[in-house]
TrEMBL record:
<dbReference type="GO" id="GO:0006783">
    <property type="term" value="P:heme biosynthetic process"/>
</dbReference>
<dbReference type="Pfam" id="PF01593">
    <property type="entry name" value="Amino_oxidase"/>
</dbReference>
<keyword id="KW-0274">FAD</keyword>
<comment type="similarity">
    <text>Belongs to the protoporphyrinogen/coproporphyrinogen oxidase family. Coproporphyrinogen III oxidase subfamily.</text>
</comment>
<feature type="domain" description="Amine oxidase">
    <location>
        <begin position="9"/>
        <end position="289"/>
    </location>
</feature>
<dbReference type="GO" id="GO:0004729">
    <property type="term" value="F:oxygen-dependent protoporphyrinogen oxidase activity"/>
</dbReference>
<keyword id="KW-0560">Oxidoreductase</keyword>
<dbReference type="InterPro" id="IPR002937">
    <property type="entry name" value="Amino_oxidase"/>
</dbReference>
<dbReference type="GO" id="GO:0005737">
    <property type="term" value="C:cytoplasm"/>
</dbReference>
<dbReference type="InterPro" id="IPR004572">
    <property type="entry name" value="Protoporphyrinogen_oxidase"/>
</dbReference>
<keyword id="KW-0963">Cytoplasm</keyword>
<keyword id="KW-0285">Flavoprotein</keyword>
<dbReference type="InterPro" id="IPR050464">
    <property type="entry name" value="Zeta_carotene_desat/Oxidored"/>
</dbReference>
<comment type="pathway">
    <text>Porphyrin-containing compound metabolism; protoheme biosynthesis.</text>
</comment>
<keyword id="KW-0350">Heme biosynthesis</keyword>
<comment type="function">
    <text>Involved in coproporphyrin-dependent heme b biosynthesis. Catalyzes the oxidation of coproporphyrinogen III to coproporphyrin III.</text>
</comment>
<dbReference type="InterPro" id="IPR036188">
    <property type="entry name" value="FAD/NAD-bd_sf"/>
</dbReference>
Amino acid sequence: VYAGRSDELSLVTTMPALARAARTAHTLVGAVRAAQAAAPRAPGAPVFGTLAGGLSTLVDAAERAGGATVRRDATVRELHRTATGWRLTVGSTRDAAHVEADAVLLAVPARPAARLLAGPAPVVAETVGVLDYASVALVTMALPEPELPELSGFLVPAGEGLLIKASTFFTTKWGHLRRPDGLALVRASVGRYGDETALQLTDDDLATTVHRELSKVLGTPLPAPVAGHVQRWGGALPQYAPGHLDRVAAARAALRADHPTLALAGAGYDGVGIPVCVRSGETAAEEIITALGGSAA
Ligand SMILES: Cc1cc2nc3c(=O)[nH]c(=O)nc-3n(C[C@H](O)[C@H](O)[C@H](O)COP(=O)(O)OP(=O)(O)OC[C@H]3O[C@@H](n4cnc5c(N)ncnc54)[C@H](O)[C@@H]3O)c2cc1C
């Protein structure tokens, strides 16, 4: 999930429920059981959830529901404090524009956040900039009637010596993607934190290697794909090292004290799952509204 090494990741950030349970349970199995018991799933409720039209529809829905003006492809390059709020420098150096704002919520990954914070809050910038990221590539293939186990997918431990680190059988995992003609969509992810050699392969070589490794893991030669897609995500998966939550708390406390109308939200701070990111954004927005003297209700 994190494309990282479990012994280098903060338990309390990556698995907060397990970390809570581990404070009283004496074994790992006991802690897992206690965490599961503390959050029981309704019988028959699905393990996974998604949006039928794809996750990008979430962005469009948020835009519509919020009634906000959304500017895409507008990189913020600088952030300056003004007498009344903030000035953002947006766009390329040749075609820069300024945006004046009462408040700023930085919902960008840690590296761009650190660059933007370097002017107004250099110590916070340094704290935020500690977070490192893993890069991954996703190889998706459409396979005509492959023999797949009735699973949503599988994870591959680093010690197996394979390039693939996980695979998802889309057409098994998501009922709405099942096709009457038996065409299966299978996706594999490649790339682990600290070992990016796999990502230097060309798209074609990645697809060939993934196809070969999947056949090996599944113990059956997979049919040749009728279509494929390679998507690269550079620096996309945060590697929350131990102490991450303390660093985030310190960064937020410093901002609250010196710049209450500047807040941080998103996966760089509160966790990687989309529900956590949404909650993180809502909490930060409420703080900013309060700082501006409004009511978050
Ligand atoms: C391959 C992959 C699969 C995943 N699968 C799942 C999953 O199944 N379920 C799940 O819950 N989570 C999943 N995640 C995690 C989840 O998608 C992310 O943690 C989440 O999208 C992070 O949201 P965010 O808003 O914090 O950051 P992002 O989604 O990274 O958004 C940050 C935005 O800031 C923009 N930006 C950066 N710098 C600037 C700048 N200077 N100026 C303006 N804009 C800027 C970026 O372009 C980007 O649009 C997955 C992640 C990856 C990489």
